Structure formats: C-alpha cells, structure tokens
Amino acid sequence: MRSIDESHDPRRVSWVASAQGHAEFPIQNLPFGVFSPAGGSPRGGVAIGDQILELRAALEAGIFSGEAARAAEAAAGPSLNPLMACGKNARLALRRGVSALLSADGPDRAKIEPLAARLLHNAADCTLHLPATIGSFTDFFAGIHHARNGGMRRDPNNPLNPNYKYVPVAYHSRASSVRPSGVPIRRPSGQRKAINEDAPSFGRAQKLDYELELAVWIGPGNELGEPIPIAEAGDHVFGLGLVNDWSARDVQGWESQPLGPFLAKNFGTTVSPWVITSEALAPFRVAQPPRPAGDPQPLPYLWDDADQQTGAFDIALEALLLTEGLRSKGLPPHRMSASNTTDLYWTLAQLVAHHTCGGCNLAPGDLFGTGTISGPTPEGYGSLMELSADGQRQIVLASGETRTFLQNGDEVIFRAHCRKAGCTPIGFGECRARVV
Predict the structure, then answer these.
(1) Taking the mean position of all CA atoms in its chain, how far away is CA 98?
(2) What does the angle CA 214 – CA 428 – CA 304 come to, to the nearest 5 degrees?
(3) Which of 9, 14, 270, 433 has fewest C-beta within 10 Å?
C-alpha cells in the first residue's frame, strides 16, 4: 500500500522552472487531469508548476515505452476512466516515467527540453474539465464531528444515530450535476417548512450551505456480486481531490424524512479538477487515529491491521469565503475553518469495503464524497450550519460583513495541502465556485 521511490525524493527538481517551490504542483506531486488548451479539445495532462504536460504530445514524441506508454495512452484522451481502470502498476509506471521526463537530471533531458513548446501548456490559458465520466456518486458521512454537530440539534443527549460507529453511513447522490471547479452554482428551489409554519412553501433556498469534503476517485472496480475485501480495498482508490457538497439546509430539513437528502443535494456538486494519485500521497499516509475508549470494534469485514496502521492521510484542509464586500475592499478570501482528514472516523478502504460488501459493483471513475470533514472545535467546522448554529450565530468577516448562510455572489474556496518533515509539500489545487 505504501510505495516510496525516487519520484518522491525531495532533492529531485524539474527543468520546468515554475515547479520549483510550487505550493501545489512540484515534481513530487504530478496529479492527473483533463484540460483543453485555447481552441483545443479535452485531453489528458499532468500538472507541473504553472504548466500542464500534454500526455498525447509526449506519446507522439516517443518519450514513453512499455507499461508507461500503455498507461499514457489510457490517460491521453478526454477522460481518465481508461487509466483508472488500469490499476496500480500501470499508474505507478506512468508516474515514474513522467517524473523522469520532467526531472532536471533525467537521462533524456537534452532531447526533451527542446520539445517543451509541444509538451507544455500554460495552465492559466487552459480550461480544466471533470477528470472522469462519473457513473455513480456516493456521499458518505464519515466525519464524526460534523455528524455529532448536526445531531445535537435533533437530540443533544444522543447526537449520533445508534448505527454510526458500526457502519459507514452514506447515500447515493446525483452524478449528473457534478461540475468542475469554477463553474457557478445556481441557488436551488424547493419546499421549505420552518418549525413555526403550519404548511410548507416553495421558493429559493434561504439556507444555502457548503460542505468541505474529500473526493475519492475509484480506480479498478469489481464484478457485480463480488465484494472487495478490506485488505485489498485501498488498491481500488485511484486518487483524491476535493468536493463541495452544496446543501440547501431549509429544503433538506423538510424533505429528508424519512429517506434522506434529495433536492437539497442534487442541484450541484463541485469537485477539484486535479486528481492527486494514491502514489503521490504515499509519504503522507498515517495511522488511523485510535477509536475512543468504549467505541465498538468494527465488524471483521471492516477491519484490517495494515489499513489501521497506514490507511489514513495527513491532509490539511481549509474552507475560505470570498464575498462582494471583500472584493470591493481588495481583501483576500476569509478563512472560515481549518481541519484535517485525520478527523475522519472511517478509512477510505473501509468505505470501499462497505460499499461493495453486499455485492455492489464499483466502476472506474466512480466518485465518493467522504462527508463533511469538521474538526472537534469551531475553528475546524466544515459547514456554515455548524459555524452559525443553523443560523442562530452571525459570522463576522474581515470586511465587516456578516453571514449565517451563503448569499448570491459569495464564492466558496477549498484548499488542501500535505506537509511533512523531510518531504516536499504538495497541494490539491482549488475547489471553488460562486453562487448565482
């Protein structure tokens, strides 16, 4: 599960100048995505500094060979689904090939560097797309602090449902309304009913919220009826990104009983366009935090010692808000919260194993949301519902504006970074969208 090699070496530098010290995409990262150059069609690429390496151009230049060439062919088209289907070994071969290609001390630098104009595109001049065709989108509820904070409104004495610590809870969301970062989100309409109202009304959602989540992109799938064992589940994760699971809280509160979210969640989901592969994240794996004393041991199909030792990730998360008032005063986005993926109660392998335990078939390009990742204190709350106590507490921004929920024109920005002593920091790029 843990593969550290020369592609992670912090001493490795790239001949692409902007990659040196890049906060998101140094040569140790090399995330995959789908982009279009100006006037061009969608194609597969790799982020390196402020540039994008076009995989099709690299193939045509004869740079890759063997398994790396086969993986590059799978990744060069308008979606990454074929690469996601290839599995870990092909992905690793391509990563090592791209790292060697872009390395300042690579054996073929003298041949490759003159081809830079063909191979590289300025990221600022390109359009980023969804990295894969999403067949299914499942949203989990694996952030225990968020689950507890939401449950406090229902029952302060027993905020978690009885099943929460036994089963990774989830619902099937809407794949067709997932959009890449930068695409605006339109405020949805639906039925709403406040506690003091006798009957529901229909109209625009007034309690529009964001949810800070990790995106989990599935690689190789499984056959219908064939569960994925927990010990193998981690190898079915292609890579990670960020998800904003936009939520209309007033619509959600009325419609969710008894079957759960529907219109409150299906109007739009924003994902970051770059997929940080499992291999890039290998140096930042950590042990899953131990369960508090008294919590039940997961059932055997959800427990694997190796997964508990290395199946979690140390990823620092931020949620920021940019408003019209902040823009007009030339102020930066206001940081709303900071949390970490170690706040998840379940590992990603546990999510995969549970999703398939009844025989459900996953497919390459399927998307999981982890559920909102909140920290244990207000500084880490990953949604406005928590930060504003469902609208009861005003949040004061640096501009002097206040918020309880989102207003039109507000832009939500998520960021994520991995940092560890002795390792080169890497980032995820932004997941952002403006409410219209």
Answers:
(1) 23
(2) 45
(3) 9
CA dist., res. 29 & res. 10, Å (int): 11
CA 423 to chain centroid: 21
Rounded Cα distance between 436 and 418, Å, is: 32
Percent of the chain with pLDDT over 70: 100
Q: 58: closest CA among 94, 107, 14, 89?
A: 94
Taking residues 57-62, report their average pLDDT: 94
Calpha distance 229→357 (Å, rounded): 8
Nearest to 322 by CA among 312, 314, 332, 330: 332
∠ CA 187-192-197, rounded to 5°: 145
Q: Which residues contact 179 (CB under 8 A, 6 or more apart)?
A: 130, 185, 268, 269, 270, 271, 433
Residue 251 contacts residue 191 (beta carbons within 8 Å): yes
Peptide bond into 258 cis (omega under 30): yes
User: Is position 146 annotated as part of the catalytic site?
Assistant: yes
How far out from the chain centre does Cα 85 lie? Answer: 19
Candidate list 22, 121, 146, 334, residue with the active-site label: 146
pLDDT computed for residue 193 by the predictor: 94
Q: Give the confidence band of 35 by pLDDT, cuts at 50, 70, 90.
A: very high
Distances 42 to 38, 55, 78, 261 between C-alpha atoms, Å: 10, 12, 5, 33
What is the reported pLDDT for 2? 55
- pLDDT surpasses 60 at 1: no
Confidence band (pLDDT; 50, 70, 90) for 299? very high
pLDDT value for 157: 86
H/E element, 89: helix 88-102
| Domains of the chain, CATH where assigned | 6-128 (2.30.30.230), 137-434 (3.90.850.10)
The two three-digit tokens of residue 263, written as one number: 């219109």
Assign 3-class secondary structure to 1-69: CCCCCHHHCCCCCECCHHHCCCCCCCCCCCCEEEEECCCCCCEEEEEECCEEEEHHHHHHCCCCCHHHH
Cβ pair 404, 268 in contact under 8 A: no
- Encode pLDDT of 224-282 as tens digits: 999 999 999 999 999 999 999 999 999 999 999 888 889 999 999 999 999 999 999 99
Strand pairing partners for 167?
Answer: none
Residue 31: name the closest of 434, 430, 433, 435 by CA. 430
Residue 152 has pLDDT above 90, yes or no: no
Task: Using CB atoms within 10 Å of the CB of residue 260, give its burial: 0 to 12 exposed, 13 to 18 middle, 19+ buried.
Answer: middle
- Does the structure show a pLDDT above 90 at 70? yes
